[in-house]
């Protein structure tokens, strides 16, 4: 897995976490325990700091960056969907960021908020906890219901289990193709 230090800014990886071999972890990136960092993800803490809470899933193609002296903070058990982009924002515990979302500077996503696929959270936008937001720019669409937390709670457990499976059974193989 490509993990890089720059200007004495060095990543840390929590126990039980797994980083795909094509992900790139650069600089001051602090990954918690039992996290999944997918293929092609780029977490670039060259100027700012990136913090990923325990049991979070950063899926394939996600880009996370922080401004100079800034911070991108991802809480515990957050799911960040494929190809999302997070820039200098705060995402609180258990939030769900849909595929191809853009979460812009100084925005904040509340606990258990769900941001629908391809949504845009604008600079400085605040999304309250337990709300569903969608669109570009994203607007409130309703409340997060018990069925949402049940479904997403199960999906979050799947990713924690997946980290264990990848640590134990993922191997590159030679092929005849």
Structure characterization notes:
The protein is globular and about 50 Å long. It contains 1 helix and 20 strands. The protein has one domain (about 5-170): UDP N-Acetylglucosamine Acyltransferase, domain 1, CATH 2.160.10. It has one helix at about 145-170, and strands at about 5, 10-15, 20, 25-30, 35, 40-50, 55-60, 65, 70-75, 80, 85, 90, 95, 100-105, 110, 115, 120, 125, 130-135, 140-145. A hairpin with a 2-residue loop joins strand 19 and strand 20 (about 140-145).
Helix count from the secondary structure assignment: 1
Main sheet overview:
12 strands, parallel
The proportion of strand residues reads 35-45%
Q: Tell me the radius of gyration.
A: 16 Å
CATH class: Mainly Beta
Portion in helices: 10-25%
Structural class estimated from helices and strands: mainly beta
CATH topology: UDP N-Acetylglucosamine Acyltransferase, domain 1
Give the end-to-end Cα distance, rounded to a whole number of Å. 24 Å
- Into how many domains do the coordinates divide? 1
Order of helices and strands: EEEEEEEEEEEEEEEEEEEEH
Sum up the overall morphology in one term: globular
CATH evolutionary superfamily = Hexapeptide repeat proteins
The assigned CATH architecture is: 3 Solenoid
Number of E-type strands: 20
Q: Whole-number average pLDDT? A: 96
Q: Which blocks of ≥5 consecutive residues have pLDDT under 50?
A: none
């Amino acid at each position: 897995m490509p993990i890089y230090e720059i200007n004495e800014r060095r990543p840390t990886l929590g126990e039980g976490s797994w980083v795909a071999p094509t992900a790139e972890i650069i600089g001051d990136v602090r990954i918690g325990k039992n996290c999944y960092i997918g293929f092609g993800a780029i977490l670039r803490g060259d100027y700012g700091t990136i913090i990923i809470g325990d049991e979070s899933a950063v899926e394939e193609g996600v880009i996370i960056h922080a401004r100079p002296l800034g911070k991108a903070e991802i809480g515990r058990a957050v799911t960040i969907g494929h190809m999302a982009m997070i820039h200098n924002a705060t995402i609180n515990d258990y939030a769900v960021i849909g595929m191809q979302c853009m979460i812009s500077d100084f925005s904040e996503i509340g606990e258990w908020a769900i941001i629908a696929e391809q949504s845009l959270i604008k600079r400085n936008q605040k999304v309250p906890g337990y709300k569903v937001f969608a669109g570009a720019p994203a607007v409130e669409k309703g409340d997060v219901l018990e069925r949402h937390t049940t479904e997403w709670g199960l999906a979050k457990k799947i990713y924690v289990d997946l980290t264990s499976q990848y640590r134990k059974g993922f191997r590159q193989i030679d092929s005849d193709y």
